[in-house]
Amino acid sequence: MGAWRIGHGYDVHRLVEGRRCIIGGVDIPHEKGLLGHSDADVLAHALADAILGAARAGDIGKLFPDTDPAYESADSLALLARVMEHVRSLGFDLVDADCTIACEQPKITPHRDAMRANLARALGADIDAVGVKATTTEKLGWEGEGQGIGAWAVCLLEKR
Ligand code: MG
């Protein structure tokens, strides 16, 4: 049996007018969207960092610098797929992952399974291996006031 590795990732993006609201690869109709150099998919970024963390392979800021024009408006699901490809090349396979999104609006639950399917496809994993859920923060703090959206992810990798 290979060694198990746990990874954790966290990301935040600001909610602003005039941007698309792409979360877990789902383009959610909303009056505001997420600000960032890439498509600012906060969920894909948190999960990518969890996977890189478990592989002790740095973070997405290091792999895909936001100063690099190549990643302007980048599709974060494609970046997630590249992260998984990278950690596979280091000898790791994904066993399981789970994510939590903290936001007041938009509502996440109607899009949850589409997000799971998108993330699983990017990872080359079964949809059952990827959990997504959401919580509000009872209108407290910056998430509750709608200034931004935060996401956490954990994952389990197995070293071959
Ligand atoms: Mg990010």
Descriptive notes:
This protein is α+β, with helices and mostly antiparallel strands and 160 residues long. The protein contains five helices and seven strands; from the N terminus they run E-E-E-E-H-H-H-E-H-E-H-E. A five-stranded mixed β-sheet has the order 4-1-7-5-6. It has a two-stranded antiparallel ribbon with strand order 2-3. A hairpin with a 2-residue loop joins strand 2 and strand 3. The radius of gyration is 15 Å and the shape is globular.
Number of strands: 7
Helix- and strand-based class? alpha+beta
Portion of residues in beta strands equals 25-35%
How many helices?
Answer: 5
Distance between the termini: 8 Å
**Main beta-sheet strand count, sense and barrel state:** 5 strands, mixed
Shape: globular
Strand arrangement within the widest β-sheet reads: 4-1-7-5-6
Query: What ligands does this structure carry?
Result: magnesium ion
Multimerization state: single chain
Q: Would you identify the regions where 5 or more consecutive residues have pLDDT less than 50?
A: none
Helix content: 25-40%
Q: How big is the Rg?
A: 15 Å
- How confident is the prediction overall: mean pLDDT? 95
Order of helices and strands: EEEEHHHEHEHE
Question: Could you give the topology of this structure?
Answer:
Elements: E1 4-16, E2 22-23, E3 26-27, E4 33-34, H1 42-54, H2 60-63, H3 76-89, E5 92-102, H4 112-123, E6 130-135, H5 141-144, E7 148-159
Parallel strand pairs: 5-6
Antiparallel strand pairs: 1-4, 1-7, 2-3, 5-7
Bound molecules: magnesium ion (MG).
